[in-house]
Amino acid sequence: MFFTIKMFLTVKKFLKVWRRREIAMSETIVQLGKGIIMLENNYDANLTCIELDDNLVFIDTGRNYDLALKFRIDMEKRFNKKASHLLITHYHFDHYGGIEAFKDTEIVAAESGYNQFLTDINFYLTKEKREKYVEMWKKQAKESNQEVPISRQIHWEYFPKANLISPTIIVKDKFEFGDNNRKIAFEVTGGHSKCSAIVHLPLDNLIHVGDNLATNPERGKDGFPGYPMQFYRYGLNEKTISVLKQIEKLNIDTVIPGHGQVVSLKEVSNTVEYFDDLFREMKLMFRENIEPDSSILEERLVEFYNKSITNWVETIRQQYKTIVQEQTINEIEEKKRQMLEFISNKDLEKVLKFYTEDFELFLPNGFVIKGVGNYRNNFPSFDDIIEHSICAEQYYFLDNSVVENSKYKSILKNGKDLLNYEKTFIYFWKKQGKSWVISKDITVSESVY
Ligand SMILES: [Zn+2]
Fold this sequence. Notes:
It is built from 13 helices and 18 strands. By secondary structure, the chain is α/β, with parallel strands linked by helices. It has a seven-stranded mixed β-sheet with strand order 1-2-3-4-5-6-7, covered by helices on one side. Strands 14-13-18-17-16-15 form a six-stranded mixed β-sheet. The protein is globular, with a radius of gyration of 25 Å. Zinc ion binds next to helix 3.
């Protein structure tokens, strides 16, 4: 760990920049080519209108219904055509809050995240609950006596007002439409969120990447072209960078980000390069067992300092946490791959090394097997496994363990018949020395068919 006076001063400098004030809210109409108009919407998502031969296609709505409706009506007048589609780049409120302005059009969104979206709008994010959330946030802000950033003030204003409706076209991978002059491809890529999609207009050399990229006015426009949105709040995942790398291979002149000014492909490449380098350093730090709390004191991170990242210290710390989590998941995935191999080889003793001594197996009937010794005697038979796999749905990071929600599937030979075995379970992973081991297996359900 390096903690020199010099380093301390540098950290102080970061903190000073962190507290920089923000600029005023504004909306700007930007023409991006013949029949492509963007409403650059500071502190909110960009709205985009694309003209087809017979109708208009919109991308994202921002949070403000009135503004979305006004933009739609203005564009309908300007082109003398009606809106036919709204494409939603992902299920985040700043991108669909104004959805009601398009209730009479086809609304296109990803299949991934769709069920959660329906649950949200019918249960977690009903109007009544949204009002309560905002009340709570305002109260918390008042109590902590902290200045509320404009972007949050805007969120609080529109979050409780919106009437939320469901998309009408649910896309698994790709939805393509258009006419002779213009092709539009809505492609679910993931990245910023699992439900993230990009909108590619190949004949226009233009792409909308949603929040896989954002140039946020709060962070200043000087210095660096753009950062993927979640870099600021949650830490950026590698998937987002791989989506941007895919874009680098396309013939593109203009890239529309989820937020902020449009950028060139070159600027996207610069962003990719920055994060590639940053992630490389952070992965090295992970291998050296550097804790997230001391990550920011690493001198090697100073070269990544950029004055346009206002929250540099917190942002970098959060980013390192994300890298640590991603690398941990990689390690655990590798452990499971090895374990499946030992199971295939019917090597029970090696398989049992993946469990703690005090391992507990909870079965759906309420039965509990305690201790790895007892587990050895009760281990399911390895005989005749034709193939098997484990697929993690989700990982959760707790203080001293990682919780995995997963599914195991196998095909077993039973005499002349083949049987399918499926088990849904929750693993509790614990770090023992340098290696991850399972301390609890909660079997939620299992079936043979
Ligand atoms: Zn957004």
